[in-house]
Each structure stands twice: as structure tokens, then as C-alpha cells.
Amino acid sequence: MKKFLGLLVFALIVWGCSSDDDGPELLQVQSNTFTNLYAPQTGGQGQGPIEGEFTRFDFASGNTTTSSTDWDIAFRGTSIIINGGVSLGTTDEPERTGTGAAYIATGTFADIASVTRSEFVQDSASGYAIPSGSGNGWYSYNPMANTIEPIPGRILVIRTRDNRYAKVEILSYYKDAPETITAEIATNDLRYYTFSYAYQPNEGSDNF
Predict the structure, then answer these.
(1) What share of the chain is helix, strand, coil (3-state, %, to 5)?
(2) Is 11 a domain residue?
(3) CA spacing 20 to 30 A to 40: which of 56, 65, 101, 139?
């Protein structure tokens, strides 16, 4: 009986040690769609210099934030900046306090299953990691209809301020993501981002 109890205690110890060696349980990738992130600006298009606060977004909470440090990407008009690198020098840009970076991948949202770390660049004094201008980054401008349209297959891959990863597909630039953009919507309901994203919360893991 004593021999049996000794073997049982030994087995429990070995099992407990092996369980401890498994390491912490990984968190699940968070996937969601955010609707109507408002990114207003003043100026531009012959109306003076572009100004206005950037609307900041934090992937860990899945929401906008007013924090000066705990944000990953930020939006103003068609411009998207990263919490990493340095300011381009435009009015009202927030200070970069993180290690964020970004690049644009080509493919469907589902196709982008992992990160290519060598592709990351940061915001700099010469340009944003996500380029501005029609056809250069995530959107094209239609001058005939005066509309901003996301370019199909352009996926933003983000390194967050604290070295996690996310991918973003911008779906619409207009309030409530209408299927048809009328002249009234193009004039009055612009600068409302709807985007899908996936966030990898585990440090060191670069798969979605």
C-alpha cells in the first residue's frame, strides 16, 4: 500500500511539473468590424492648411481613445498615422511614443495570414508609413463623383505601439458604409471610417 501511495504521489508531481512547462495559455486573435470612426479635419482642397486632432484607435481595447500614449493608429481625413517613428510635421499631429510601424499588403483580408516583419516602416519626416494621396495607399479619389473609394485588396498590416500585430481592411469612408455614394453623402457624410481588423494579442506571435 505504501509503495502504491508513493508511486501515486510521484505521478502527481510529474504531471504537475509537465503542466507548468506548457507555459501560459495563448489569447485568441480578436477580429471585429468598427463602424463610423469619425476623422474630421479642417482645411485642405484650397481651404488653407490641413488641421485638426487625429482620432486615435487602440487595438487592444478595440475602441477609440483620447490617451496621448496608448494608441496604435490615428485618423484625420484620408491620412492614417502610426504610433511609431516621428511626425511628418503637419499641424496637430500627436507625438509618437510607441514602436509602431506598418506596410500595405496585397490580397484578400483572409489571405494575409501572417506578418512579413522585414516590410515594416515607420512614420518619418519624409512621409507616413501608410502613404497619402490617391492610388498611393489605401484609397483612390474619383474627381468626377468627388468620392474616396478604398482600393480592393489593399490590407494595412500594423505593428502596434507595444510590438503586437494587427491587419486592417478599410471598407468605407462614409457614414454607415452606404453601398451607393450619392452627391449628398459625398458632401455631408464623409470621413467616417468603417474597417475590419484582426488583432494578435500575444507578444512574439505574428500569425492571424
Answers:
(1) 15, 35, 50
(2) no
(3) 101
